[in-house]
Every structure is written in structure tokens, then in C-alpha cells.
């Protein structure tokens, strides 16, 4: 024991202290939710449990089941057909299928609601109206917006799958259909389940689409508890349940992931042979692959463009430019801070010699699993507490009156974005940093150079592209973010996502198109990145 | 002859003590000598050199460099302050730096970098490569550059970690002799880690055989060859003559 304490003392360096500080900084929102659970629920909790909670649970369950079925269908079918068959416009379809990710689901929701509404596209041209602002409509919107997660994961799996097992199946007399359903589909399960978990996390995180379609979910419930009932305790309890559900989903995904290594053990790797479909098959398969692109990207973008054409004169004014600039500024600053803190976290962990601290780095990826609304609640409580303490402290020591310094300012907003999107930057940077190779860093140290010099001269130049992709991914996610921004944005500041939401909430859905299009344009950048990444793999 | 390195009862474990990599290892290394550390995979060779260089921390024991404690249960001197050079198995040449930048990387500001780089390049028999990048050189040339880079700051101790394992047999034989000559010419004290006893016999003054984290024989290379003390060492030596 004495020897161990001596070792801990020897291995503790300044990086250990800095690492602990960063970890604590990142963990505050989650810890806040956890600690506040012990304070008990708010007054309305029992009323909420009796009347609203069953609704939240039921609606969330319906959404989960519905989106699971459709995203799996769209994602796996398009992934498999493109991997297995020569189809027209195959190259283009491969990346077009990812584009719906560029459109936040709440924007797709506005577009479809407008299209089927009174005086919408279908009413105008076909005298056909349909109420899609219900569970089914929301499932449709979420599915065509989010299926790319399943498509990307399945496609990556199919591209890495060996042709030998398909040939073995054929030689055993199995048909193409049997080979797919009995062999390929079960083998691909870990991959598409991984994609599906991301879909479900987004479904549970969604606020804009559910709110607009009038469906009560956990996220809308958190908003209601916080703003309408003014009961943070109740919001925290709902947040805790939501986080619990998400961690349950993640543990399922982890179990699946463990099996991937086993399934990918094929050594003589030869890519799946591509078949030439018959004419009939070609039409059918092309339609199956093209429909999700049409519904998830082309139709909503055309609708937005049409609306933008109608409204740009009123909407595109100095206020819009100012909001766009604020959005860009906030996103740039948030992306910069996030990447900076991710670098701190990765490198302080490397430079710290205390092994017991190393697993703590994983707090960085925690935020992505926690819905924006929950993170907002987790940021609000400690920042209000800190600001109140500071006001009292300054008053008593300096006899000065000051206002809130963090809460209700851009600092709290950027802090929350950082917590939410750290994983987005952490994953590519850490993966590249591991790939760079330990020996380069060790060689630099043995040539007499310290940690910082080694970082600046050796690691940073080799990590530049990963840092840039991390930066862009966070930037775009921040531009798209809605629920967290709605709760934490300072009164005098606005973002494109919030502006689009405000227009849509005021039934000015056509006016929402211009900010929405701007967000979509920004969203296309990482989609191109993502596609390149998979193609390289 | 002065002692440059002293290893005393060094213990290193992994997996919370479940795997013993080094089990109370002790030895000395005299200035100017070349010591070959021989053993099969998992014998503890790599762990030993990582502890000497400071790339890993020990659990128990003491490591002294030039009579100064650099590692113990309460002291740890960072690798960059130990003045130990190393040639890595994969050479670890910085891919984004030219050969000149690679070699001059560790040279002190007080020394004329141009002159020193030219000097070490001449020593390894390569010239006109300063402006090239590592990927533009052959495996054997990269190997030599890695050696030149580690010699450039004039380290007190040089460690070569399986330096020939990535080379084909012909090149390996050629380089083995060249490197021995260069190290001797510069009068550098060196530890040469290998699983190939042929390398050890060709280069070293002293030899140390490791098995499962224990030293099973050490001494002058000639003495160990003449009187192996165990079946394992005899088998190792027989593999050369076979």
C-alpha cells in the first residue's frame, strides 16, 4: 500500500491536475442532474406521472418502433442494393443517400406539413389535403431524415464483407434471396443496430418536429416542466428517465459491437461481387434506392426553394443577415472551443502518467448521448448557482452590484454546445492520434523534446486534417441545434435554427424556408466529408 | 571502466500485477560497451528498454544513469531529460519533415546544425538526401537515417530496438556490420535489443539473455558462447550454427 501511494505521488504531474480540472468541467452538467435527483421531484411530479408520463412513454415508444421499422428498411435495402448490384447513377446515389442528414428533421417536418396543408402543393395541384401532423406523419418525417445513419453503417459493413461467404452459400444451393435473409442480414446486425441506436438517440433528442406536430415526448415534456410549470426538479426527473433510456440503448449497441470482431474475422478478403440485374429488377431496385433520396432530400429542398422564392423579399433583410452572422459566429466560436477542449482532454490524458485517471477521458463522449434539452438543464442549474454566489460575494467584499455573468449569456450557451458535441470532434481526432503512432512521439521525447514541443512540431501537423474535420462537424451541428439553443440562448441573440422555429411556430412556415435553406447548405459540407471517409475505408 | 547504467532489482508488472514483465532484474553497463539483450517475444526486452528510456515507469527497483537516479518508486526523470537515444523498430522517422529536419531535430541550439547533420550523414555513408522525405528513401536508407538522427545529439547511451527486423536477409547482414562499425567509431555506449542471436553475436561486447522477465545468463559475449549455463541459452546459440 505504501509503495502504491509512493507511485501515485511520483506519477502525479501538472497534467494530471489539469486533466482532472477539464474532466470536472465537462462532467458538471451530468453530475448536476444526478445530484439533483436526490432532492426529490417537484410538486407537479405526481400529477405528471398520473396524467402526462404515460403519454410521453407511449408516444416515445410509438416513435421508436415506427422509426426503427422504416429507417431499417430504407437504410439496409439501399445499402445492400448498391453494394450488390450495378444500378444506374450508382456513384451519385451512394452520396445522395446521405444528404438527408444535412436537413434537420424539424425542417423536413415543416416542409411536409406545408406541402399537405391547405393551399399547399398537393391542395393546389391535386386538390388533395391530408393531416400529417400526427404520430404517423412524425414517424415518416423522422424516418426519411434519419435513415442515413443505418445506410452508412450497413454500407460500410457490406463493402467490408467477404465475397467468399456468399459464394459458399450459393454453392450450398441457396438462392440470392435466401442468402440475403439467412446470411447477410443476420451478419450485418451489429452494423445496422449501431446505426439504429444513433437514429433513436436523435428521435429522443428531437424537439422541433415533435413540438410542431403536437406530439408530446420526453423532450417536449422537459420544456413544459421547465417553462410552463417552472419546476426544474420535475424537468430533472424527466431528464434522468430519458438519459436512462438512452444508456439502455447504448448498452444494447455495445453488446452488438462486441460481436463485430467475430463477424469480420474473414481473412481472404475479397469484396462482394456485383451482379447485373434484369430490366425489371433494375427498375424496382433503382426505385427502392431513389425513393429515400427523393423524399428525404429532393422534395423538402424543392419545397424550401419554392417558399424561399415566394418570401425572400420579406425575409432577407438586415435582421436576417444579422441572425445569420450571429449563428455563424456562435458556431465558429463553439467549434473552436470544443476542438480546443478536446485537444486538452486527449493530450492531457497522454501526458498524465497516472493510469487511474486515463479512463476519465471518456466523459468527453458522454454529452452526445444526452439530449440537448437535458444538457441545457444541467448547465442552467450550476451556472445560476455560480452567478448567484458571485453576486453575493462581490456585494459583500467590494460592495458592488453585478448581474449574471454566465447564465443568460453566450458563455453558458457555448459551454452547453461544447458538452453536447465534444464526442463529434473527439472521435476523429483521437482515432487519428492513435493512428499517428506512439513511436513518433517517443522518438521526439528521446531526442530531448518536451510534450508541448512534440505536440506542436510532430503531432499537430499530422493531426491537422482530423482537427479540421472535427471542427467542421461541430460547426454544422451547432448551426442545426434547436432544443438546447431555445433554452440557453441570450435574450438579445438569435440563431437561424431558432428563427426558423419561431416562424414555423407563428404559422409563417414559408418564411421559415430561408433560414432553413441556409442551415441545409451548411449541413451538406460534413455529408461530403462523411462520404469521402467511407469511400476511403 | 566507468559504469554508465545501473539497473537494480527492477520489477514491472501489467494488468494490476497479474502479468510480471520484469522480475527483479539487475545489471550494469560500462561506458563504451555494446550490450545485446536477447530473448524471445514476451521475455521482457521491450519493457526493459522502455524503463531505461523513461517511456514507462517501474513498479519497484532503481535505474541509474551516470550515477544519477532516473527511475525509482519515488523518482521519475522524463525521457527528454535522460540523454538516451533510440533507434526504433519502425524507425519512427517524422514523415512530414525532410531528412535534414529529422536529423537536426534533436541537436542542441548551441551546435551548428548544418555541420553536425553533414557529419553524421557522412558517418552513415549517405549524402545528398537532406532535402528528401523519409518515404522517398529505401528501407535500408531509412534505417541509416534513424541511426544518424539518434546519434546526432551525441547521446550518452544509445538503444537499438530490433533495428533489422524490417529488412531482408542480405540488407540485414550488410547493415549489421555497418552499424557495429559506426557505433564503435563514435565510441557510443549501446544496448542492442534483438530476438536474433546472430545480431547479438556480430555486434556486442556483452550479452544478457532474458526469459519470462528474468535474466538467465549475462556476461562477455565470448564467455556466454563458450559456456552457456542452461538448455535454453544453448538452444539459442545452436540456432546460429544450425
Question: Any overview of this molecule?
Answer:
The complex is a heterodimer of chains A (537) and B (242). In chain A, helix 2 crosses helix 18, helix 16 (318-351) crosses helix 19 and helix 16 (318-351) runs antiparallel to helix 21 (451-480). Chain A contains 24 helices and no strands. Chain A is an all-alpha fold and 537 residues long. Chain B has 242 residues and is an alpha/beta fold. Chain B has a 6-stranded mixed β-sheet, with helices on both faces. Chain B has a 4-stranded antiparallel β-sheet with strand order 2-1-4-5, with helices on one face. The longest helix of chain B has 17 residues, at 169-185. The A-B interface holds A 3, 6-7, 9-11, 353, 437, 439-440, 442-450, 457-458, 461-462 and B 53-55, 57, 59-60, 73-76, 78-86, 88-90, 92-96, 105-106, 108, 149-150, 153.
Low-confidence stretches of chain B: none
Strand order in space, largest sheet of chain B: 6-7-8-3-9-10
Class derived from helix and strand content of chain B: alpha/beta
Low-pLDDT windows of residues of chain A: 264-268
Strand content of chain A: under 5%
Q: Could you list some keywords that capture this structure?
A:
heterodimer; A: about 525 residues; mainly alpha; 24 helices; B: about 240 residues; 6-stranded mixed β-sheet; 10 strands
In short:
Chain A is built from 24 helices and no strands. The two termini of chain A are 48 Å apart.
Q: What is the secondary structure topology, with strand pairs?
A:
The complex is a heterodimer of chains A (537) and B (242).
Chain A lengths: L1 H10 L2 H24 L7 H7 L1 H32 L5 H7 L8 H12 L4 H6 L8 H26 L2 H9 L4 H12 L1 H17 L2 H5 L5 H11 L3 H32 L15 H37 L2 H34 L11 H7 L2 H27 L11 H27 L1 H9 L4 H30 L2 H6 L7 H10 L7 H24 L1
Helix pairs in contact in A: 2-14, 2-16, 2-18, 4-8, 4-11, 4-15, 6-8, 6-15, 8-11, 8-15, 9-10, 11-14, 13-14, 14-18, 15-24, 16-19, 16-21, 17-19, 18-19, 19-21, 20-21, 21-24, 23-24
Chain B lengths: L2 E12 L4 E12 L3 E5 L6 H9 L6 E6 L2 E4 L12 E4 L11 H6 L8 H11 L15 H13 L5 E5 L7 H17 L3 E6 L2 H7 L2 E6 L2 E7 H6 L4 H11 L1
Amino acid at each position: 500500500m505504501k509503495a502504491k501511494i509512493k507511485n501515485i505521488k511520483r506519477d502525479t504531474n501538472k497534467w494530471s491536475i489539469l486533466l482532472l480540472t477539464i474532466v470536472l468541467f465537462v462532467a458538471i452538467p451530468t453530475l448536476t442532474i444526478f445530484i439533483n435527483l436526490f432532492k426529490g421531484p417537484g410538486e407537479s411530479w405526481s400529477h405528471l406521472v398520473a396524467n402526462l408520463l404515460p403519454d410521453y412513454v407511449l408516444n416515445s415508444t410509438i416513435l421508436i418502433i415506427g422509426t426503427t421499422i422504416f429507417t431499417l428498411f430504407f437504410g439496409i435495402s439501399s445499402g445492400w442494393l448498391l453494394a450488390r448490384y450495378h444500378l444506374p447513377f450508382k456513384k451519385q446515389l451512394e452520396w445522395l443517400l446521405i444528404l438527408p442528414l444535412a436537413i434537420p428533421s424539424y425542417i423536413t417536418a415543416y416542409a411536409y406539413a406545408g406541402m399537405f396543408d391547405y393551399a399547399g402543393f398537393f391542395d393546389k395541384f391535386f386538390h388533395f389535403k391530408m393531416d400529417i401532423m400526427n404520430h404517423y406523419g412524425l414517424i415518416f418525417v423522422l424516418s426519411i431524415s434519419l435513415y442515413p445513419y443505418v445506410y452508412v453503417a450497413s454500407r460500410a459493413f457490406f463493402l467490408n464483407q467477404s465475397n467468399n461467404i456468399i459464394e459458399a452459400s450459393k454453392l450450398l444451393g441457396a438462392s440470392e434471396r435466401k442468402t440475403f435473409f439467412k446470411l447477410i442480414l443476420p451478419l450485418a446486425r451489429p452494423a445496422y443496430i449501431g446505426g439504429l441506436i444513433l437514429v433513436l438517440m436523435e428521435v429522443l433528442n428531437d424537439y422541433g418536429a415533435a413540438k410542431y406536430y403536437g406530439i408530446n415526448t420526453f423532450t417536449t415534456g422537459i420544456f413544459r416542466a421547465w417553462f410552463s410549470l417552472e419546476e426544474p426538479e420535475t424537468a430533472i426527473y424527466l431528464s434522468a428517465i430519458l438519459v436512462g433510456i438512452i444508456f439502455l440503448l447504448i448498452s444494447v449497441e455495445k453488446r452488438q459491437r462486441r460481436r463485430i470482431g467475430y463477424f469480420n474475422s474473414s481473412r481472404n478478403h475479397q469484396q462482394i461481387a456485383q451482379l447485373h440485374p434484369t430490366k425489371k429488377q433494375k427498375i424496382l431496385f433503382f426505385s427502392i434506392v431513389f425513393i429515400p433520396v427523393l423524399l428525404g432530400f429532393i422534395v423538402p429542398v424543392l419545397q424550401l426553394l419554392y417558399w424561399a422564392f415566394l418570401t425572400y423579399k420579406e425575409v432577407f433583410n438586415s435582421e436576417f443577415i444579422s441572425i445569420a452572422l450571429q449563428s455563424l459566429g456562435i458556431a465558429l466560436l463553439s467549434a473552436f472551443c470544443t476542438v480546443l477542449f478536446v485537444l486538452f482532454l486527449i493530450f492531457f490524458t497522454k501526458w498524465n502518467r497516472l493510469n487511474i485517471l486515463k479512463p476519465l477521458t471518456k466523459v468527453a463522449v458522454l454529452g452526445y448521448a444526452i439530449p440537448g434539452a437535458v444538457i441545457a438543464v444541467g448547465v442552467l442549474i450550476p451556472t445560476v448557482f455560480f452567478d448567484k454566489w458571485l453576486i453575493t460575494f462581490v456585494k459583500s467584499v467590494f460592495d458592488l452590484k453585478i448581474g449574471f455573468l454566465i447564465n443568460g449569456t453566450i458563455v453558458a450557451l457555448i459551454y452547453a454546445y461544447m458538452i453536447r458535441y465534444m464526442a463529434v470532434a473527439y472521435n476523429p481526432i483521437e482515432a487519428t492520434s492513435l493512428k499517428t503512432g506512439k513511436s513518433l512521439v517517443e522518438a521526439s521525447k528521446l531526442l530531448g523534446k518536451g510534450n508541448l514541443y512534440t505536440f506542436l512540431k510532430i503531432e499537430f501537423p499530422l493531426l491537422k486534417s482530423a482537427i479540421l474535420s472535427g471542427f467542421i462537424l461541430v460547426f454544422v451541428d451547432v448551426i442545426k441545434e434547436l432544443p438546447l439553443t431555445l433554452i440557453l440562448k441570450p435574450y438579445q441573440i438569435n440563431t437561424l435554427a431558432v428563427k426558423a422555429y419561431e416562424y414555423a411556430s407563428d404559422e409563417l412556415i414559408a418564411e421559415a424556408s430561408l433560414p432553413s435553406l441556409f442551415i441545409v447548405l451548411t449541413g451538406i459540407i460534413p455529408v461530403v466529408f462523411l462520404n469521402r471517409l467511407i469511400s476511403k475505408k | 571502466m566507468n559504469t554508465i547504467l545501473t539497473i537494480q532489482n527492477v520489477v514491472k508488472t501489467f494488468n494490476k500485477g497479474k502479468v510480471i514483465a520484469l522480475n527483479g532484474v539487475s545489471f550494469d553497463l560500462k561506458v563504451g560497451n555494446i550490450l545485446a539483450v536477447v530473448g524471445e517475444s514476451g521475455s521482457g526486452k521491450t519493457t526493459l528498454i522502455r524503463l531505461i528510456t523513461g517511456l514507462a515507469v517501474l513498479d519497484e527497483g532503481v535505474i541509474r544513469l551516470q550515477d544519477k537516479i532516473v527511475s525509482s518508486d519515488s523518482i521519475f526523470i522524463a525521457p527528454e531529460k535522460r540523454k538516451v537515444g533510440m533507434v526504433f523498430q519502425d524507425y519512427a522517422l517524422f514523415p512530414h519533415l525532410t531528412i535534414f529536419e529529422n536529423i537536426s531535430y534533436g541537436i542542441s541550439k548551441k551546435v551548428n546544425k548544418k555541420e553536425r547533420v553533414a557529419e553524421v550523414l557522412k558517418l552513415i555513408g549517405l549524402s545528398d538526401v537532406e532535402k528528401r522525405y523519409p518515404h522517398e528513401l529505401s528501407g535500408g536508407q531509412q534505417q541509416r537515417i534513424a541511426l544518424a538522427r539518434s546519434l546526432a545529439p551525441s547521446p550518452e547511451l544509445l538503444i537499438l530496438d530490433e533495428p533489422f527486423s524490417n529488412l531482408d536477409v542480405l540488407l540485414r547482414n550488410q547493415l549489421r556490420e555497418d552499424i557495429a562499425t559506426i557505433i564503435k567509431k563514435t565510441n557510443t555506449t549501446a544496448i542492442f535489443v534483438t530476438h536474433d542471436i546472430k545480431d547479438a553475436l556480430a555486434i556486442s561486447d556483452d550479452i544478457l539473455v532474458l526469459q519470462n522477465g528474468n535474466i538467465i545468463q549475462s556476461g562477455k559475449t565470448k564467455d556466454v558462447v563458450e559456456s552457456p549455463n542452461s538448455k535454453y541459452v544453448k538452444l539459442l546459440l545452436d540456432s546460429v550454427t544450425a
